Amino acid sequence: MGNEFSYEGVTGTHQWYDGTPHPWEFKRVWHLEPSPDDPDTVYAGVEDAALFRSSDGGQTWMEFAGLRTHSTGRDWAPGAGGMCLHTIIIDPGNLQRMYVAISAAGAFRSDDAGASWHVVTKGLSSNFLPEPKALIGHCVHKLAMHPARPGTVFMQKHCDVCRTDNAGESWTEISGNLPSDFGFPIAVHAHEPDTIFVVPILSDTEHYPPEGKLRVFRSRWGGNEWGALTKGLPQRNCYVDVLRDAMAVDSLDSCGIYFGTTGGQVYASVDAGDTWQSIAEYLPRVCSVEVQTIP
């Protein structure tokens, strides 16, 4: 992560898997998010659950210590993949507002450019927690937002697909008729703020599509009512996963959508999911897919 770090000493503890205190460690980068207004500024989400910013193209980094030292931080605990800060969303119309998601602490919002943070988990429920509606401990897998509607954020979590229309102050489950409410990625159509895409996975222990059918599900109504998009995707004996950063959309008028699998395939749709084609095969497991539109 560049040549130099600047952060307040990594002191204190968070919870470990067995509930015992564990010292903070910075192990690996989970997500990089460019600033919407400055090409030299980039944000990094790392394990354990820390947020950094570089303002010089990655040469030096500064931690937003107000997040990791939040009053609830001592009670944060890792999920199956570690305690990773994997989602960073910056409101392009209000650069003071940011959202992050941490597995398995929950979702957080800053209204002062990262200086302080609020837990935004009201309405979430997780049946693996001793108290299902607890403030923290929800294993959020991914957040997505359309820039034209920054108060609406969509969430795929360990169980349930959810949305908020008040910047995280409260959440509503929108899993509706999905064959499974477990999954990792969630994406929003480039031009339709109420059109969203998810890829259901059978369960937290069985990481493959229900019935062995690789299906992207689309809702044009902001959730609850979902349709399966299957044309061009394998519909039998398909036992792959689609990870949280392995789905992306482009900004073309028709809104292309792309995703990769743990089996090494990459699929693309040029018509918002109506039809699919394989554009790469025999790769290692695909962890991340990004799209760049050439002018």
Number of helices: 1
| Number of beta-strand segments | 23
Please bin the fraction of helical residues.
under 10%
| Computed structural class | mainly beta
Low-pLDDT sequence parts: 1-6
Q: According to CATH, what is the topology of the domain at 4-173?
A: Methylamine Dehydrogenase, Chain H
Q: N-to-C terminal Cα separation, in Å? A: 30 Å
Question: What can be said about the biggest beta sheet?
Answer: 5 strands, mixed
Element order: H for helix, E for strand: EEEEEEEHEEEEEEEEEEEEEEEE
Q: Using only CA atoms, what is the Rg? A: 18 Å
**Broad CATH class of the domain at 4-173:** Mainly Beta
Task: Give structural notes.
The protein has 295 residues and is mainly beta. The protein has a domain at 4-173: Methylamine Dehydrogenase, Chain H, CATH 2.130.10. It has 1 helix and 23 strands. It has one helix spanning 65-68, and strands at 4-6, 13-15, 21-23, 28-34, 42-47, 50-54, 60-63, 84-90, 98-103, 106-110, 118-119, 140-145, 153-157, 161-164, 172-173, 182-188, 196-201, 216-219, 227-229, 247-249, 257-260, 266-269, 277-280. The strands form 6 sheets. The chain has a 5-stranded mixed sheet with strand order 1-7-6-5-4. It is globular and about 50 Å long. The protein starts with a strand and ends in a 15-residue tail after the last strand. Residues 1-6 have low confidence and may be disordered.
